[in-house]
Amino acid sequence: MGTWSIGHWLIVLVVVLVVFGTKRLRNVGTDLGAAIKGFKQGLAEGSDPAKLEADPKPEAKAEEAEKEPAQKN
Predict the structure, then answer these.
(1) What is residue 55's DSSP assignment?
(2) CA-based R_g, the chain, Å
């Protein structure tokens, strides 16, 4: 009596589909998948010490910004 059979789970599934609808459940699944993917990428980036260094791109943009006013004069 304490365990749920497959019939019980099917009824619960039907009730959830009726209450939330398939579109909302699809959106929840997509959001959950994206969150898990982002979490895995964060773990991979956090364990790679070479990627923890500063990105050189902002420095290059700063140098270009300094050169532009000199060229306008």
Answers:
(1) P
(2) 26
Q: Could you give the CA distance from residue 65 to residue 71 in angstroms, rounded to a whole number?
A: 10
Question: Does 41 map to a domain?
Answer: yes
**Single pTM value for the model:** 0.44
Domain that holds residue 27: 6-72
Number of domains in the chain: 1
Give pLDDT tens digits for 9-24: 999 999 998 998 888 8
d(CA 47, CA 50): 9
Sequence-ordered alpha helix ranges (H) in the chain: 6-20, 22-47, 57-72
Instruction: Report CA torsion sign: 13, 15, 18, 21.
Output: negative
Q: How far apart, in Å, do the first and last CA atoms of the chain sit?
A: 87
Q: Whole-angstrom Cα distance, residue 59 to residue 69?
A: 17
